[in-house]
Write a structure and sequence with these properties.
Strand order of the largest sheet: 1-3-2
Shape: globular
Largest sheet: 3 strands, antiparallel
Length: 155
């Protein structure tokens, strides 16, 4: 096994700190609007879909969640009136998840504060060149992760 060099370890540690700190501040900001980061992630994905609706399996794929995690979280969101879950007519095992009107209102209420916070703690801290580099490196890592995942599944 080849261990990380000191520079590689510093890079990895910097990424971990970045992710942890961003996740924490974003979660705290969303809590002020009555949402968890998980709620917001799912609601954004649903709001981008036609009719604010997706099959549960497609929603899980969109946000990279396991079926059990999604099912449990959607049950909590359903109980709060943020989403509605209905069986798929042509597939007894399928479930359609739709953002409710109340869920959309809460999302629209939270979005301006969320965007303001993202801008304050992330966007405004980096130059356009750094933003472009971040996009590029994110794309490269996502491709590597997806290739690794498909290779592991196919093996």
């Amino acid at each position: 096994m080849e261990w990380l060099s000191d520079d590689e370890q510093a890079t990895w540690s910097a990424y971990i700190r970045l992710r942890q700190r961003l996740d924490a501040v974003i979660a705290a900001g969303l809590t002020k609007d009555g949402l968890s980061a998980a709620d917001y992630e799912l609601m954004v994905a649903l709001s981008a879909a036609p009719g604010d609706c997706l099959r549960a399996k497609d929603l899980a794929a969109e946000v990279c969640w396991e079926k059990s995690r999604l099912s449990k979280h959607l049950a909590r969101m359903d109980a709060r009136g943020l989403v509605d879950r209905q069986p798929v007519a042509e597939d007894a095992r399928g479930v359609l998840v739709q953002l409710t009107a109340a869920g959309r209102r809460l999302l629209e209420q939270a979005a301006p504060n969320h965007v303001r916070l993202v801008r304050e703690v992330f966007i405004d801290c980096i130059s356009p060149a750094e933003a472009h580099a971040m996009q590029s490196l994110s794309d490269k890592v996502v491709v590597a992760v997806e290739e690794s995942t498909s290779t592991a599944i196919g093996a």
